[in-house]
Amino acid sequence: MKERKRGLKGDTALSPERGIILKSPREIELMRAAGRVVYQVLRRVRDLVRPGVTTAELNGVAEEMIDKVGGTALFRGVTHPQARFPFPSALCTSVNDELVHGIPGDRPLREGDIVSVDCGVKLAGYCGDSAVTIPVGSVSAEARRLIETTERALGVAIDAIRPGRWWSEVASEIQAVVEGERFSVVRDFVGHGIGREMHEEPKVPNYWGPRNRQMDFEMVPGTVLAIEPMVNVGTHAVEYAGDDGWVVVTKDRRYAAHVEHTVAVTSQGADVLTDGR
To answer: How far apart are CA 119 and CA 107, in angstroms?
Structure first.
């Protein structure tokens, strides 16, 4: 569930750096437990994706898995001012030109599609959030390169994280990977801090420029971020697909990909909390 670009207390301190809530080692382990459920859901969904499967079927499996462990599906029931109704599902399933917030339904996946699956879980009061983009059967070389580039951009970001660096440095590296492949980084939606709530400070953009200066922040141990490159084959411009106020599509209707991990900043660098450990 992405934040459009536009004071809770943890076990440790409220950072003066833009109101970022620093997490204690105990809280980070609780977030890892939530992230492990997210990982398991996405792994199962990846196994199920094939031509003919509907996104509603994928969501049904996710709902059952989350309920079984006593978790809460983070996205279900979320509202925002543009939306006509609360988000109805545990998963966002965004197909082809749908960037984010795709609503699961009876649409069967077809050979050559790509589907971005975003899952968030709250468990024991703490959140985990992750996304993958999955090819359906055999896909075009361009679609495969899009997915691989988006995954590589996330990997570069994770590798670049260490205390004392500013997010602008990491965002610039994400942008360089994407634009080096002649794809576009989405501007209108960004990642976010995460902890007891799905959306906390700071905003976490995947590109950089002078207009982003007010969103910059220094990474310090205890910062936890949902880092999520969103990449389009063509223009970076996006729009709402219809009047429901949820589904976001590329303006030129070319393919989009989205991947995400929940990542804690530690004294050694990055600790990925949604990789299944």
So the answer is: 19
